[in-house]
Design brief:
The chain is α/β, with parallel strands linked by helices. It has six helices and nine strands; from the N terminus they run E-E-H-H-E-H-E-H-E-E-H-E-H-E-E.
Length: about 230
């Protein structure tokens, strides 16, 4: 017995269909050995990794258009892994990461559901130093600025693992911490293109969502074309 229930959903990205195993709802919980609790993941937070969130769809759509040529890419807080699956489908060199003890299991299952090779995965806590992870040409994430302190944590991860010429791409549903994060990355010589995006079909202009594309020392002149949810 899993101790929690799951379901399968379908999501098209760039007209390519993806099958995804997700938790049935946000009330699911299963931590019999206390691994999640030991990582500081509360029962209220436990199920969040196992959902497909609007910001995750937006990031997946961005990764369908993203220039992957010669880039080593890291996804932070991958959850069920749709953006990383899109990159894997395109043949990108991608490493997915998360702190949740079940993220690797769901990611592997979803790769198999879509007839993709297993993805490279690393369990990564944003407050832990992991030198063996190395540096990346692009770091991507969706909805990781949900608390004020997350901006500092993600900025520190960028400082540790971003190549000198790296790009950082985040999708944010308008939680209010993106400006703080942008200021922190400006201290690392990043500049940002900030594109307002609809988070769902009911998100009327001015859209609350943001697609944040950071480049070191220069403003990105060709940000991904306006992204629409499908």
């Amino acid at each position: 017995m899993l101790g929690y229930s799951v379901r399968e959903i379908n999501q098209a990205i760039g007209h390519h269909p993806y099958r995804l195993r997700v938790l049935s709802d946000r009330q699911q919980f299963g931590d019999p050995d206390g691994r999640a609790a030991a990582l500081g993941i509360s029962s209220a937070q436990w199920s969040l990794f196992g959902q497909l969130w609007p910001a995750g769809r937006l990031l997946a759509q961005a990764m369908y258009r993203f220039d992957i040529t010669g880039k080593r890419i890291l996804e932070l807080g991958c959850g069920i892994g749709l953006p990383s699956l899109v990159l894997q489908q395109r043949g990108a060199n991608v490493v997915a990461s998360d702190a949740h003890p079940l993220a690797e299991v769901f990611l592997a299952y979803n790769a198999a559901l879509n007839d993709l090779p297993a993805l490279h995965y690393r369990q990564l806590r944003w407050d832990s130093h992991l030198p063996a992870l190395g540096t990346f040409d692009a770091i991507i994430a969706s909805d990781v600025l949900y608390e004020r302190g997350q901006a500092e944590l993600i900025a520190t991860v960028v400082e540790r693992h971003a190549h000198p010429e790296a790009e950082i791409l985040l999708t944010d549903p308008g939680r209010g911490n993106s400006a703080r994060f942008s200021r922190m990355l400006s201290e690392q010589d990043f500049r940002v293109d900030d594109l307002r995006c609809p988070m769902d079909d009911n998100d009327a202009p001015p859209h609350r969502g943001r697609l944040l594309h950071f480049k070191r020392g220069t403003i990105a002149s060709a940000l991904i074309a306006r992204t629409h949810l499908t």
